[in-house]
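[Automated response] Your request has been received and processed.

Submitted sequence:
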Amino acid sequence: MSDSIGYALIVNVKYFEDKDDNREDTIDDQINTVRAFKELGFETKLVTEDEDVNITASRFDSALQEAIDCVRIRGYQHFAVFVSTHGEETRVGDEYIHHLSFYDGDQPTKDILLDPLNQQLRNVYKLILIQACRGRSDGEKYEDEDRGVPRDSNACSSKPTPSTKENNTAHHAPLCIPKSVIMFASPSGKSAYQCILSRLFLESVQSHKPGDEVDVIDLLKEINRQFVNEVIELSDEYGDYRVCNIGSFNHSLAIRIKYTVRQL
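Generated structure:
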């Protein structure tokens, strides 16, 4: 019988019908997260493109269902998932709905990921990490161009930038389901930058010694403290400027979840 604490599903979507959207340079996301989850004691399953089989919404749905079935069969009390892909928020009425991108199109994150977990693993503790943008698709107040927070006063000169244009819409906290922790790689309305979340996740895990107990909320807080040191240098019609980002997380835990770091 496995001595793993739980089951972790890692999904990296690299290819899309529109080849301009391809993310071939995201291999580090899957390498980092597989390693981090193993060091936290999880059985891991990586799902990405192989033999020209792309990650469609249907394939993602099947992989998630297979992972849910494994959790039930093995009797695990912990489940984790890391999804690396494109994403955006679209306006529906007076709210924004986040979507994850797959080879054949976008799906609401709530419908394709959160609802199945809530319905089928309601009594299992869930850690959900999402490396996907949360930019706005309607462009109101230039929100779909909001790339991050300026890092210094010289970054933008006297001209407005996508980061400093007027924005009167509140940034939404991520949706949360019972017994779960969810973290996005950026706040609502902002771009996310590839491979940063996965690298900080691994580095934060490896900052602990084998045998240490790691509180998952403290782990995500540490990731956010490190996020502000990740400076992104950008150039566009407004000139050159520097931004940083920060993860956005929410949880519904009545008790603190702790994992024990393992030596691989």
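Summary generated for your ticket: The first strand starts at residue 6 and ends at 12. Confidence is low (pLDDT under 50) at residues 141-146, 153-170.
If you did not submit this request, please reply to this message.
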